[in-house]
Amino acid sequence: MEGAYVTTIGHGPTTNRRRLRIRLRELRLDRRLSLEDVRQEMDWSLSKITRIENGSVSIAVNDLRALLDFYEVRDVEQVRDLLGLARLARRRHWAAEFHKYISSPYMDFLGYEDDSRRINQYHPFLIPGLLQTEQYARLVVTAGPQYRDDSEAAGARVRLRLARQDRVFAPTRRRDVRIVLDERALKSVESPQVMLDQVDAIVSRLPQLDLVVLKQDTAANSALVGPFSLHEFNSTDDPDVVYLDNQPDDVALVEDDLLVAGYKSAFDDLYRQAASGDDAGHILDTIARTLRRRLSAG
User: Which of 45, 88, 195, 286 has the greatest CB tally within 10 Å of its CB?
Assistant: First the structure.
């Protein structure tokens, strides 16, 4: 992989940290060095080296200089780019103010979402977080035991969800958003007012995303897939990733190429089965009219 340089422009700390840790692992393997070889030479703990290579921690610039010297990386441009990645990886995450309310994997999820060129989401039972109203989000967040009695944490997670939406749908950001919305999710809350507001909010987003609706009578096996987000980068430097949604508290990262390809295929299958365009709009309109009748009937 000598001479395969990375670029350092236009991405947040999460993506740059992943670029760096992938490159460092490649450099080590190219030189047929084990983690133990690195530990002995650098006088670091094995856990430190492992955390650097799996991306759970950033590497200090001075430590990186020493490591590159051990790896005999002499090309000036390559060293410059790798040091640039290290500096960018240590920048403040846009959601850092929420760090005490969310896990590190979820923070990385937000970073990959922020940097992706296309976001693909599916949830069989709930409205995806990118489309939730404040009222709906609060109901989802407080449904579980972790935040039911912690109003501060629940409020922070709701604000974070709304901040995600502002970033993803900002007019200045260019990315595709595709969402397969299961019809069952449109009936997930008993309050007709909350659900009507939610449907109206989804309709208002339609110019900004590609939304299809999976009809209830054709979705029998879709729940077996489970909720997930697929982030595509359209870059050889940044492999696509999948996050499995463990609502409302956490996420699990999938990076294995074969598994990611499997989720891409699953998403495409769900997308093809779903109603799109005017048909999707008709489903949303029918549900909204039903909810309005319920409200009128008291």
Answer: 195
Same domain, 215 and 285: yes
Task: Give the other-Cβ count within 10 Å of 173's Cβ.
Answer: 10
Q: Is the Cβ–Cβ distance between 214 and 186 less than 8 Å?
A: no
Q: Could you tell me if 60 and 161 lie in one domain?
A: no
Distance CA 142, CA 148 (A): 5
* Residue 3 in domain: no
CA-angle at 224, arms to 223 and 226, nearest 5°? 70
Neighbour tally for 161: CB within 10 Å? 20
Is the model's pLDDT at 223 over the cut of 80?
no
Q: Please indicate, yes or no, whether residues 50 and 141 belong to a single structural domain of this protein.
A: no
Same domain? For 46 and 167 the reply is: no
pLDDT tens digits for range 239-250 = 999 999 875 557
Tens-digit pLDDT profile for residues 224-236: 678 999 999 988 8
The upper half-sphere exposure of residue 256, i.e. CA atoms within 13 Å in the direction of its Cβ, equals 5
Burial zone of 67 (CB within 10 Å; 0-12 exposed, 13-18 middle, 19+ buried): buried
Give the residue numbers spanning the domain of 31. 13-89
Does 4 reside within a domain?
A: no
**Tens digit of each residue's pLDDT (9 = 90 or more) over 265-287:** 999 999 999 999 999 999 999 99
Same domain assignment for residues 116 and 50: no
Give 258's DSSP letter.
H
Could you give the strand order of the β-sheet that contains 250-254, starting from the edge strand earlier in sequence?
Answer: 210-214, 176-182, 118-123, 228-232, 241-246, 250-254
What are the tokens at 194? 């909350």
* Same domain as 134, residue 276: yes
Sort strands 210-214 and 228-232 into parallel, antiparallel or unpaired: unpaired
